[in-house]
Amino acid sequence: MKAMVYQGPGQRSWQDVPDPVLVGPTDAVVRVTAATICGTDLHILKGDVPEVEAGRVLGHEAVGVVEEVGAAVTSVQPGDRVLASCISACGRCRYCRAGVYGQCLGGGGWILGHTIDGTHAERVRVPFADFSTHLVPDNVDDSSAVMLSDILPTSFEVGVRNGNVQPGQTVVVVGAGPIGLAAIETAKLFSPTRIVAVDLVPARLEAAKQFGADVTVRADEDPERVVAELTGGLGADVAIEAVGVPDTFELCTRLVRPGGRVANIGVHGLPAVLHLEKLWIRNVTITTGLVDTVSTPTLLEMLAAGRLDAGRFVTHHFPMSEMDAAYDVFARAGETGALKVVLTR
């Protein structure tokens, strides 16, 4: 089959690789019908995730059709259309039993496209298929469903839920890329008074308005002053970091009010300064996290019921054979206007 293979920092290739096979009794082999590219894949290509070895098939988000299952798999069968979660869960370890699938001790967690071959391929082996796949409702199309592989549960769980967004609050989302837009979309579920989006790219700020931001401000036009004016000098109740660079994290710690929360979603490849000499006395809570995907079934139900519009994240469509072009378009999002690209076959 064909797959996108990581060849070391800055290097990738769309090439022939062996078809996946069942390795354990809890595995499934899924024929990929839709996949999308994540900012984390770009971090890998930059060398920010050294655990990823050269030769690894990239990708951790997909929708597809089950072709084969191991002897222990009971919840899906060949022919089922499923969402492959970005997080795999053994379902048995201490963390999985607490619903903290991202920290799975039984061989799961974030493994697809990280420590095992991923979804940017014509087929993928999905370990722990009973816990790591979700049946897709018939009225949900592949392009919408694949948005629930990662960005929507990640933004909801790591940004909105960890940030404890409440009705009547001021929420600032720093970074209006796909993850930030998903944070805006899911923060609206909790009826904050206002959502402020911060970014450097005018097109992304315009997208933030379309996704529900009440106020937008360029990152180089003093967002601290804007947020202070909106909140009577207090600052934001919740600041969500959705970029993954030191400057944006440090900005969030300056935007948040005393007693507020900074929820970091971004994947960081460099250290950020933590100004505890200023933060300790202000009762600021800082959270980090890898998504657990416990919210995926709920989000799928909301999607099927028309309560979420996941399809609007998709700005570019490609056949899977044009994977390399899709990576180029997504990597140059500032020029191309790409939010999410979807590859289908």
UniProtKB/TrEMBL annotation:
Q: Which UniProt keywords apply?
A: Metal-binding, Oxidoreductase, Zinc
Q: What is a GO molecular function of this protein?
A: oxidoreductase activity
Cofactor(s) annotated in UniProt: Zn(2+)
Q: Which Pfam families match?
A: ADH_N (PF08240), ADH_zinc_N (PF00107)
InterPro entries membership: ADH-like_C, ADH-like_N, ADH_Zn_CS, ER, GroES-like_sf, NAD(P)-bd_dom_sf
* Domain Enoyl reductase (ER) intervals: 8-343
Give the protein family: Belongs to the zinc-containing alcohol dehydrogenase family.
What name goes with this protein?
Zinc-containing dehydrogenase
Question: What organism, scientifically named, is this protein from?
Answer: Saccharothrix espanaensis (strain ATCC 51144 / DSM 44229 / JCM 9112 / NBRC 15066 / NRRL 15764)
Its ancestry begins with: Bacteria, Bacillati, Actinomycetota, Actinomycetes, Pseudonocardiales
